[in-house]
Input
Amino acid sequence: MRRLRLTTAGESHGPGLTAVLTGVPAGLEIDFDFVARDLARRQHGHGRGHRMKIERDEVEFRGGLRGGESLGSPIAMWIENRDHKNWNQVMSPVVNNPDQSEKRRLHSPRPGHADLAGGLKYLRRDLRDVLERASARESAARVAAGAIAKILLRRFGIEIKSGVRSLGPVGAGRPTPTWAEIDQVDDRSPLRAVDRELEPEMVALVDRMKAEGDTLGGSVTVIAHNVPAGLGSHVQWDDKLDGRLCRAVMSVPAVKAVEIGSALTVSNGSGSEAHDGIEAGKRGDDGSWARTTNRAGGLEGGVTNGQDVVITAYKKPISTLLKGLPSVDLDTLKAHRSQYERSDVTALPAAGVIAESMVALILADALLEKIGGDSMTELEAHFQATQALQRTWPSR
Ligand SMILES: Cc1cc2nc3c(=O)[nH]c(=O)nc-3n(C[C@H](O)[C@H](O)[C@H](O)COP(=O)(O)O)c2cc1C
Output
């Protein structure tokens, strides 16, 4: 990110998580209920493990705000890990309890996790030293920061939502959802599915996988609505907004493929079925032209074109299986099933909320890059001026 910067810290069973978000302009009023709602959305979903029953994520703001408004300085946020009290003998940042630590030592790596590669890289005897930071618990800090980015974007009319498109084989191959479909996803439904009719089948599949000690992945679509044309750039490879978005969404734990618009479908067909015709005459407030379709997912040449930005993340099944997977015991170097750590069967609805946060951070960054300014007042003036210029383009 260029104008915004996010650093997170904290271990899964340590005292808590820290997020520091730098680059938010002064004068942004923070809607604390909105931040709390997004954190609760990340915890929700059929198929989550016992941990989410222990945690009640709440953000404590420790810097960068005064009276509920941003100051332009780094925003520091803290989220307590309630589960730490059950782990303080093992995960104290300052006190070493070798006997307790030994009891919880991870010595048989779980395939699909950072356990083995991270242990080898950092030369840690206890793979818990890797697991604790690689855990998706860290994503709570990203969601807190992403909520700030969403609040900023909302000031310019931009909204971001997501929905589960497929879970395992259920819904796989379903067409790319539209904003109207994503907008009606019910946050209280068990899996936040785009197609509610598929939800009972999805729930039954999660229950069956749980009974069998197995896990599931799937896909989740994020749509950013009302995004102005002209964010990102075609001029340099690392300016291209599609690449910047894909990198951010790919960083969501267990996401292994990212699709812009209907890329998978159009890659199987011809050019005449792939692109979005331009409708002469029909223009938006940002000067963008209406399009016949939105297969490009709102991005052409790495620049937003005024259509909805549509991104689908494909998530591998959860790597911790109750029944284990072939692995090695690092004490004996002999074959051993991977160890079990309390785990989810699926976390797709939560992954959607995290992906929304990553999209929000990247879009807010690109908006700041495009219009600039240190205060919300300046930003709003620049935004209006840019829109007016784009609306009158290309007339002289
Ligand atoms: C919200 C969320 C919750 C997750 N919960 C678990 C879990 O309980 N158990 C597990 O093994 N993996 C879980 N994962 C997936 C792992 O974090 C992920 O597979 C692991 O970090 C390796 O992924 P990577 O190769 O993308 O880094 C979760 C992912 C997300 C997004």
Q: What stands out?
A: The CA atoms of residues 302 and 370 lie 14 Å apart. The two ends are 35 Å apart (CA to CA). DSSP finds 13 helices and 16 strands in the chain. The first strand starts at residue 5 and ends at 9.
